[in-house]
């Protein structure tokens, strides 16, 4: 029995080592060919190969998230904070806000159009406001593509081909469901908004210190997953999914 358990522990340790170093083994063959490139290649969070600015698209949105333009970034975060305070802390309602805004707007426009009574001149012309069609169609098209992509990813995960990804998604939804019991959607949206405006810029500034810690955490997670797979998942009977034609 002791010998059997010893062999089992040795095989488990071998699997852990293979799991951790499996990704690096594919690049070991090319290490002799391009040593200078591989020396410069270090671990990056989420396996990124591009700068943080390019990961976020490299456009104006990336400039805002990474505080390239501090005035715009601060204004965006300030507006979001004001909206959260207005609706969450002061318990203001959206319909009330819209009605009050329309009342003020109509009153200002009415006085503006009747300004001839006060200034004895022709009243200024009220500007015409209309929503252009092209941006709305572009937004709808992009939204449709993203929804279709998300549905396709969920369908691929539900097919059961990648158990690791399936468990990760289930765990993510479970964590979100717990967070949803702590706060409402507006507060959750505001927290995500603040994180998007703080976490990327902090990571970009201290990425050389964060990446080594992330590498150690990734190795530890892989070890625990191999142990979990060996002791639990490997004992679960799973059949192959086959397409049935009716």
Describe the structure.
The protein is built from 11 helices and no strands. The chain is mainly alpha-helical and 246 residues long. The protein has a domain at 208-236. Helix 5 (70-89) packs antiparallel against helix 10 (185-205). This is Reticulon-like protein. Residues 61-246 form the Reticulon domain. The chain crosses the membrane at residues 93-112, 166-196.
Q: What are the key terms here?
A:
single chain, 246 residues, mainly alpha, disordered C terminus, Reticulon-like protein, Reticulon, membrane, endoplasmic reticulum, transmembrane
Distance, first to last CA: 51 Å
Helix count, DSSP H or I runs of 4 or more residues:
11
The secondary-structure class comes to mainly alpha
Strand content: under 5%
The biggest sheet amounts to: none
Proportion in helices: over 70%
Number of strands: 0
SSE string:
HHHHHHHHHHH
Q: What are the low-pLDDT stretches, counting only 5+ consecutive residues below 50?
A: 24-40, 241-246
Shape verdict: elongated
On the 0 to 100 scale, the average pLDDT is 77
Oligomerization status of the protein chains? single chain
Rounded radius of gyration (Å): 28 Å
Main location: endoplasmic reticulum
Subcellular location: Endoplasmic reticulum membrane
Membrane topology: Multi-pass membrane protein
Protein name: Reticulon-like protein
Secondary-structure blueprint:
Blueprint: H1 2-28, H2 35-40, H3 52-55, H4 60-65, H5 70-89, H6 94-113, H7 116-119, H8 133-158, H9 163-182, H10 185-205, H11 207-231
């Amino acid at each position: 029995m002791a010998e059997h358990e010893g062999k089992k522990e040795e095989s488990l340790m071998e699997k852990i080592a293979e799991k951790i170093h499996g990704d690096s083994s594919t690049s070991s063959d090319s290490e002799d060919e391009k040593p200078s490139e591989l020396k410069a290649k270090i671990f990056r969070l989420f396996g990124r190969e591009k700068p943080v600015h390019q990961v976020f698209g490299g456009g104006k949105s990336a400039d805002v998230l990474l505080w390239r333009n501090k005035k715009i970034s601060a204004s965006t975060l300030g507006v979001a904070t004001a909206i959260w305070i207005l609706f969450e802390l002061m318990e203001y309602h959206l319909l009330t806000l819209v009605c009050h805004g329309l009342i003020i707007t109509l009153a200002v426009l009415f006085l503006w159009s009747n300004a001839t009574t006060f200034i004895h001149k022709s009243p200024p012309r009220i500007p015409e406001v209309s929503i252009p069609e092209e941006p709305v169609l572009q937004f709808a098209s992009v939204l449709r593509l993203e929804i279709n992509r998300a549905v396709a990813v969920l369908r691929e995960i539900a097919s059961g081909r990648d158990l690791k990804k399936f468990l990760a998604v289930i765990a993510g939804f479970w964590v979100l469901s717990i967070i949803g019991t702590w706060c409402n959607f507006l507060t959750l949206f505001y927290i995500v908004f603040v994180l998007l405006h703080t976490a990327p810029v902090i990571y970009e500034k201290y990425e050389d210190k964060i990446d080594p810690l992330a590498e150690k955490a990734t190795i530890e997670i892989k070890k625990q997953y191999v142990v979990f797979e060996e002791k639990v998942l490997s004992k679960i009977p799973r059949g192959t999914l086959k397409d049935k034609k009716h």
